[in-house]
Amino acid sequence: MSEEVTARTSMITGPAPELWYRDLISCLQATFGTVLARAGADPLAVLGAGWRFLHLPGDVRSEEFYYPCPPDASGDTGLGAALAPHHALRARWWQPADEDDVWAEMRAALAGDRLVIAAVDNFHLPFRPAYGDVHAAHLVVVYGLDEVRGVVYVSDAMPPAFRGAVPVEAFLRSWGSANPTDVQDAFFSDSRIARRCLDVTLDAPAPPLTPELLGGFLRTDVEDFTTAASARTGLAGYDAFAAELLDRCRAGDAGALRELYPFGWGMQAQASLHGELLRRCGHEWGDPALAGAGRAVESVAHAWTGLRITGAHGLGDARAAAADIAHHATALRGAYARAVDAVGAAAARL
């Protein structure tokens, strides 16, 4: 009997995972940060090392965890590389292969002492404020499965933070939800969950962050912001994105504002983490210019709030919101330009 119980109870070793969170990030960065922390890496140093702008027209999905992933030379897209372009972070989406045993892959991951990031619908999770009220695509970390007691152990750093047991039935409903269109959440509903999971690994230890290493990161990022490319990247890419956003609003296209909210969150979160990292390094290394560059990048993150919230409130009448969208898009463009200049000046001294 004990062998059967053991086989049906899969838990990671050691303590429950860390609840890693920052105010402007989404569940995407929070769950990746939790996995990185357990791997012994500094989540801020990995997720905050890179800073870019990228918009992929037609790619935005109604999920809290949407993030643009450009194809590499082989045509493959990598979420890990998009989130951490300077580190060997790898992320692979998967779904259960056997509908008769949907726990097989999760059981194997946990038995191998690996955390699982699972896509869920907040509507079905008892600890989420949206429980029984609003459908919305979200990510949580799974760190245990007890098939004897019928519970899944879940960690979610997004407020209100939760770490503990969830009934298997509730988790299965959330994990397999159709996440139907919900008028209460136009931004993260209408996106099928389909029992998706992420396997996230750091293939090589993150090297110690030195001024020389960070300087190289910053010079690469500034080059990306200031070099013209065929894709919507850098400052020119932002200009194309903002111009299209405004044109669609003036034409009364509410879809432009529906896409703005999830897309902008990824750009906002990355700027927030990058700015915090530069401020921290500037303080630790006695470099006021670097700390100032961090504050300039954080101003980009905060400027995204004005644009995203204006878009959310203007969803009912995109044409009427166009003037305010133009105002906030212009303010954000100015914040980007000042931050790129500040980062470039700091990089030249490292």
Instruction: Give the fraction of residues assigned to helices.
Output: 40-55%
Distance between the termini: 62 Å
> What oligomeric arrangement do these chains adopt?
single chain
- Name the overall outline: globular
User: Quick one: biggest sheet?
Assistant: 7 strands, antiparallel
Order of helices and strands: HEHHEHEHEEEEHEHEHHHH
| Computed Rg | 21 Å
The proportion of residues in beta strands is: 5-15%
How many strands?
Answer: 9
- Category from helices, strands and their pairing: alpha+beta
* Low-confidence segments: 1-6
Q: Would you tell me the overall average pLDDT?
A: 95
Please give the structural blueprint:
Elements lengths: L1 H6 L1 E3 L15 H12 L4 H5 L6 E2 L23 H5 L5 E6 L9 H8 L4 E6 L15 E10 L4 E6 L5 E6 H8 L21 E6 L8 H16 L5 E2 H17 L3 H31 L3 H26 L4 H32 L1
Antiparallel strand pairs: 1-5, 2-9, 3-8, 4-5, 4-8, 5-6, 6-7
Helix pairs in contact: 7-11, 8-11, 9-10, 10-11
